[in-house]
Amino acid sequence: MEQPVREFKRVLGLLDSTMIVVGSMIGSGIFIVSADIARSVGSAGYLLLVWVVTGLMTVIAALSYGELAGMMPQAGGQYVYLREAYNPLIGFLYGWTFFLVIQAGTIAAVGVAFAKFTSVLVPWFAEQHVLFAVAGVPFTGSRFLAILSILLLTYVNSRGVRQGKFVQNTFTFAKTMALVGLILIAFLFGRNAASIHLNLSHLWDAQQVVPRPDGSADVIPLSGLMILGVFGSAMVGSLFSSDAWNNITFAAGEVIHPKRTIPLSLVLGTGTVITLYLLANIGYLLVLPLSGSPGGADVTSRGIQFAVSDRVGTATASAVFGDSAAVIMAALIMISTFGCNNGLILAGARVYYAMARDGLFFRSVGTLNSRSVPGAALVVQGVWASLLCLTGTYSNLLDYVMFAVLVFYVLTVAGIIILRFKRPDAERPYRAIGYPYVPVLYILLAAGICVDLLVYKPQYTWPGLGIVVLGIPVYFIWRRITTAGSGSVS
Q: Which of 80, 96, 143, 305 has the CB geometry, 3.0–4.6 Å to 38, for a possible disulfide?
């Protein structure tokens, strides 16, 4: 009996699409990564400048992606753009890296962050609580909850896009309001005159602070090209915290009026988040001094640089609420990470679906279930992300792949220029603002950071490049198998 032909249902409006952009971007990073950035650049001025440049790059990329989204409003997003601008191999290399590390690794990391902060309220879910071990690999309460949350959200999204968007809208609204609340508290009630004076007094005194095992720290003054090099490498944390804004393009097949809605949601979503991120960091600097000591007795003496476990958000709240801040921030980050993972899970499966439709992934993944969503793709993604939770290697993988993420962003934005020549008559409901200067500015900035990372963080960049290159033989092997089997791989 012939199976009915199923199609995506276009049910995501402008609000839903913007919520996917915002919700996928805001996880736990904004509450944590500023500590590492502060240690790298050593001054309030450069800390804020890192976030300003990150915001500029993110918004420029979103403005540029809008043109591609308007041209090709179909499931798969960036994978489709790369395939059409270049060739199927480049598209596959993105999809390969996306599945293997970028999306699944991020889902695993966010799931573990959700579990880690839940353990503040429910100690049973602590990383130290070992339930059992298999082949020497401990299965902890934290890993159990991380996997459970991933599988739960996978199930919810397999029930239909309406269920997924309900969860997304609810949690994104809650965490956005919570972040706004933290910012208002810092601005209205947490201002510390001594901290503000200290931060302003050393606004542009660039220095790298390296903690030592004995509780002290080495201070390395920065000048000239050293500042530029350290600045670029310090942006890894802020860029990762601002990533996943393009997730809405993956679900383009389910967006109402996608040629208008997706470009607008990209601009509204990234603009909102970047503004909140910058305000949050200003709030941190109003409450805490940037400089501190690893052995400081309280949040003020430890400063932003040495907030306990890098939890700058918690340290800021502690300066206002005292001991209860840990519970407040744990609840906030639980909401934030749970909502973030829903957006990642919802959108990511559409990339594997598009790859499978092109014969570049398991055939069964390229089908929709009775609820008109890629159920098989959701399951495959959920299983792989869960396995990464068990290995505990996802954080290293994410470090390795940030370089690759930037490379694919550069290629995608460059694809706008290429497609202007390849398809000059294609319908473009939205055209990239400031073309070609604005897209070229992004390409130069992102390429500069890639070169910077190759020089200053080779231990991360070369393995990341290796993951991408490994996809080349896989592509040709897969093509040979699918050709020999006449597309019967499943």
A: 305
